[in-house]
Amino acid sequence: SSPTQRTPVTPTLCSNLSAFKSLLRQSRALDDSIILRLNRASALSRSMADGRGSQVGENECEGFWKELTERWGERGEVLRFCDAAVAQGTGERELPVETGLSREITLKGRGESERDRRQIHTEIDVESIVRARSLAFFASRC
């Protein structure tokens, strides 16, 4: 989403994995389109320079870099916030000793939080892959 249409990041968003992943998917659209956008800019540069060179113009590169790093920063904030929020959810729950039923419910809640944390860590790993791929392609064109 654009900076004016930011989705508020709350612990509820972090525990709703489909909404969390949807937010990341929307934000990663820029990274996903980097090859197309930079190839298009490169082709335009070549046509203007009578076919010489494949580098993208400096202004286009600067603008694209700024947009790309802003998105990386936004996603980094979301990932850090959600990792901390879910970690707090797993660490603060204590197992009650009263009845078997309440213990079962608490254990289920803890398991879901741990699952959420694993999913967030998976998304952190994906983020590093996405950034490396985008950076490598960006460096090859700019």
TrEMBL record:
InterPro entries: MIX23 (IPR019171). Pfam families: MIX23. Coiled coil: none annotated. This is Caffeine-induced death protein 2. GO terms for cellular component: mitochondrial intermembrane space. Belongs to the MIX23 family.
